[in-house]
Amino acid sequence: MKAVVYEGPRSINVKEVPDPKIEKPNDAIVRLTTSAICGSDLHMYDGHTPAKGGMILGHEPMGVVEEVGEGVNIIKEGDRVVMPFNVACGTCLNCLKGYSSACLTMNPASAGAAYGYVEMGPYPGCQAEQMRVPQADWACLQLPGKPGDDKEDDYVLLADIFPTAYHATELANVSAGKTVGIFGAGPVGLLSAYCSILRGASEVYVVDKSEKRLELAKSIGAIPINFTEGDPVKQIMELRQETAVVNESLHPEEKLMGVECGIDAVGYQAYDRQDPAQFNPNQVLSDLARLINPAGHLGVIGVYVKEDPKARNELEKNGILAIPFGMMWMKGISIGTGQAPAKNYQAYLRDMITNGKAKPSFIISDRVPISEVPQAYKEFDKRDDVTKAVIKL
Ligand SMILES: NC(=O)c1ccc[n+]([C@@H]2O[C@H](COP(=O)([O-])OP(=O)(O)OC[C@H]3O[C@@H](n4cnc5c(N)ncnc54)[C@H](O)[C@@H]3O)[C@@H](O)[C@H]2O)c1
Ligand SMILES: [Zn+2]
Ligand SMILES: [Zn+2]
């Protein structure tokens, strides 16, 4: 079969590799119909991880079950399915508690596993024609309809970024009426805004520098903030002054000029605002520390790593950041981090798509055949016009 193989920084190729096989009784083989490129793949692509060459990339899989092992009971050949990016057993203590993102059994090196990702276990990715799915009954979420129908591009987003964005709103404690500030208008930030609006937030601000991405944020009713036009925290606070909640008649709520809920949908590859040609892993967390109101919540859904070989200094190379933790502590901000346990939300979000209550595919800009994936990485890496690329297999 054909697969997208990581060779090294900014070097990936489409190669002919052996077809996957059933290795354990609980495995399934899935023939992929659509898969996607993620901002998380760019961390490896850009050389900001210790990834070695030779790995099949991709962790956003959707397709049709081709074959199942003898231990698989629920899923059967011919089922249309989407899998979470997390590889998990479904039965260890963390999985039972709802933290399949920290499964204790599937990654020999640490807690938590995923397809096609550095340090996330030995699982080949899904930017390929077929893949092996371990623990298939746990992993495969059945989908209605037929491959290639008008919901194909919505359902594929259930593999990662739609539930991940929903999880970001959980971490940030978003609910009806709340004010939300989101840094990053990439696929995850845009869907975090979309989920905030689904959950009834009253004001949703989205910060980025890409006009194309900010335009999409505006199209769903969020308020775009371009950080090249000035300090985004000040911009949001000024706009908030114009709303009833913080005007003078509501003393002492002028202390709530920021937002209740903050979401970092950028991660450690944040552009430095003074010099956007450079990454500054402290930038977004520092801005959010200033923006979030006392007693607010912060969801850090953007990735931070413990090893970045291309970072600016020794501390940052080891994931040690200079952030205003004292300010966050004094404000009493609750912080949530980590990989999303996508499985927790997948079935509910699937049903919202099926019933026409959600259409997350508004973020997809490019649909490419596998042969064009290397070019799609190159374009997506500019973090501008290509807002999300899906691969048609
Ligand atoms: N926690 C999880 O389970 C999980 C799952 C999927 C993705 N992620 C992570 O979420 C993050 C976003 O993913 P994506 O696919 O949207 O990626 P992306 O790279 O396409 O988007 C990031 C966006 O942030 C913007 N940005 C950069 N610096 C900024 C700054 N200083 N202020 C405001 N905006 C800034 C960029 O212009 C870009 O539009 C990545 O770190 C990705 O790895 C985490
Ligand atoms: Zn992803
Ligand atoms: Zn587990």
Write structural notes for this entry.
This protein has 393 residues and is α/β, with parallel strands linked by helices. It folds into 2 domains: 2-160 and 341-392, Quinone Oxidoreductase, Chain A, domain 1, CATH 3.90.180.10; 162-337, Rossmann fold (3-Layer(aba) Sandwich), CATH 3.40.50. Helices cover 26% and strands 22% of the residues. It is built from 13 helices and 18 strands. The protein has helices at residues 39-45, 93-96, 136-139, 152-155, 161-171, 187-198, 211-219, 232-241, 283-291, 314-317, 325-331, 343-354, 373-380; strands spanning 2-8, 11-16, 28-36, 55-56, 62-68, 80-82, 86-87, 113-114, 130-133, 141-142, 179-183, 203-208, 223-226, 259-264, 292-300, 334-337, 366-369, 389-392. Strands 3, 5, 6, 9, 10, 17 and 18 form a 7-stranded mixed beta sheet that branches. α5 crosses α6 (187-198), α5 crosses α12 (343-354) and α8 packs parallel to α9 (283-291). The longest helix is centred in the middle third of the chain and has 12 residues, at 187-198. Bound molecules: nicotinamide-adenine-dinucleotide and zinc ion (2 copies). Residues 88-89, 92, 94-95, 103-105 line the site of one zinc ion (ZN).
